Structure formats: C-alpha cells, structure tokens
Amino acid sequence: MKIFFLDQSGKPGGAELCLIDIAKPHKDHCLVGLFADGSFKNLLEQNHIPVEVLTTQAIQVRKESSLAQGLGSLGQLVPLIAKVVQKAREFDFIYANTQKALVVGALASFFSRRPLVYHLHDILSPEHFSSTNRRIAVTLANRFASLVIANSQASQAAFVAEGGRPDITKVVYNGFDPKHYQSHESDVSQMRKQLGLDGRFVIGHFSRLAPWKGQHILIEALAQCPQEVTAILVGDALFGEQEYVQRLHQQVADLKLEERVKFLGFRSDIPLLMAACDLVAHTSTAPEPFGRVIVEAMLCGKPVVAAKAGGAIELVEHGVNGFLVTPGKPDELAQVIRTCLQEPQKTTTIAHNAQTTASQRFDVTAINQQIAVLLNTL
Ligand code: UDP
Ligand code: GLC
Asked: In terms of domains, do 164 and 214 share one?
C-alpha cells in the first residue's frame, strides 16, 4: 500500500506527531509532503520517513480566515495542487492530515483519480474555526473523501453536526508506544535537581502556548495553592501567539509567581519531564479534539487533571483514571491540585490505574492495525 501523506505544517503539533506514528510502518513506500519547512521535517527524517517540502512559501490562510482571504491564497495553491497531482500518480492513496492538506488533497484526488483519506484532528466548531473554513472542510470531505478518520468521538460529532457524512467517518484514537514513556528513577531525580524542583510539588503543563490551551488558567489556580506548588510550562508558541506569551509573563509577574512558574519552551524530552512532575494539568478552554498530553501523562504513570470537554471526556473518567474540571475555572482546578497534594496515596492509585488502561487502549500497534483495516476496505 503506497500512501502519499499531506500535512500543512512545518512544526510538530499533535497532529504531526500522530502522523509520524501512522507513517512509520509505511516508511519504505510512502512520502510525506509538507506545505512548510521546519523541525517537523527533521523529525520525519530522524524516523527514516521519506519527506519533501512541496512549497517555498507557507500558505497564508488561518483557522479564522474568511472566504476572501482564502481566495487570495489561490495563487499559491494552484502550483501546489499541480505538484501533488503529479506525485500522487505514484501512490495508491492521498492521506490528508490537516485542513489545508484536505483542500489540496481533495482537488489532487479528483485530478489524479486516487482515493482520499482525511484524518480529522480538529473539532469543527465556531470556537475553533470560521464558518467559511468549516463549510469548506465539510463540503470537500463529503464530496472527495472515501474515509474520514476522526481522532475522537467529539471530533466526529462536530463534523456530523456541521453536515459531514456519518457513513464515511470512523473514530480512531492516537496511538502511543508505552515503552517510550518509561524513565529511569536516576534520570528523573537528576532532571528535578537540574530544574530546581527538589522539595516542590510540581505541576506540568505540556502544550504549545496558545490562548485556548489555557496556560493562564493554571497560573491563576497556582496563586490559590500552597507555596510549595510550582508549575513548569513546557511548549512554545508554534503558530504566532507571541502576544499571549507576553500576557502569560505579565500575569506571572502581577501575581508574584516568578519563583513558582518556569517557562521551559519547546522540548523533545517530554516523557522525562512528565516523570519529574507530581501532577500533569490540561487546561484547554475550548473543547480539546483529542489531547495527546493527557494520554502521555497516563503512560508516564502521572496523575492528570483535564478540562472536561471534547475528547478529554473520552480519555478521563473522574476519580477513576484522572480528574476532570470545568474548563476555564481556576478555582476548581486549584481544589483538585490541593486534593492531590493532601491525598498522595489515592492519587497514586488513580495514576497507576490510568497507566495500565492507557497502555492497552492506546497501544500504537493496535491503533495502526485499526487504520490498516480501514484502508484495506477502500
Ligand atoms: N509536545 C512536545 N514538546 C513540547 C510541548 C508539547 O513534544 O514542548 C508534544 C506533546 O508531548 C504532545 C503534543 O506536543 O504529544 C501536543 O499534542 P496535543 O494533542 O496535546 O495538543 P495539540 O498541540 O496537538 O493541540
Ligand atoms: C490536534 C488536536 C489535539 C489532538 C492532536 C492529535 O492537534 O488539537 O487535540 O490530540 O491533533 O490528534
């Protein structure tokens, strides 16, 4: 099975990290075509997955763009589509992993007569996308895709609610290699020492810095927690959210939390950093389509508190394998943090439950098998 994967991003967001795991078993007979250069390309190369950057200029349309702005980018799209059509003839499928990849992939699928698979990593709701973008995605998927793989029931439901065809849609969760999330105790204590976290109760937040990821909610909650509670914010502004980064630094200064909040930037050693935490917080203020960080925390054996919306509800059962709090409510989050601090035994049991179930439920080999079965039916 020869697959031509398409992804718009040069940077490694969750959809891109998921694509690495999906493309890996196909590495001898696939190509990943990117619409922008960047560190995602390097990651694919490190994993020996063939990759080619198909454009010299990133496409200027954003999630909130209007039709006029979208049409303005046509000059960039036409040569890109022509290139994809030509290359697609060497493959059995086109597999679009992002929205702009869907636009290009849909037209290329038509002209090259290759079936199109769309991996939907987003919740197509007004909180996330303009109505134009939602309409374009649903219309193209309905008309051109043979299969839509939704990363959660929440993403599937939003797609269908926007008029997407339920008959072509299947839910497949992200897959993970549990081995990758095991760390040596000595490395963990060295990391805690190196980051100056000894003797602290450490909450980790692992997300790109973006307003809807809600780092500000964690900072606000921290101000309501005992002095020993410290947060590490791991991740960077990947898609131009510099103003939000400034706001976060200002908030930390205003609340006099400089000693208790550490910005670590984008890191490639997530499992070790998670292992160095006492609790992992997910604080998205808009529904999270899936939430890789939630599963990763579970695989690291760390308790996780997540915002109760979107895919997170499918991953976490409150009090059983983690904690859920109302999105955008720092008081509730602070309450859970204080409970974890006071009841370490109970919290550890919950984290162990989560680790066991997550390693079975999200095992990458089983997930890739689910995708293979779906592709074989096309
Ligand atoms: N991540 C990373 N380095 C960082 C911050 C995050 O590698 O500094 C990874 C994180 O481990 C997770 C992914 O980025 O696998 C984020 O995926 P998620 O589904 O949580 O959110 P997204 O950014 O895709 O909306
Ligand atoms: C997207 C979503 C995220 C999801 C990831 C992988 O980036 O924002 O929630 O976990 O894709 O499917």
From this structure: no
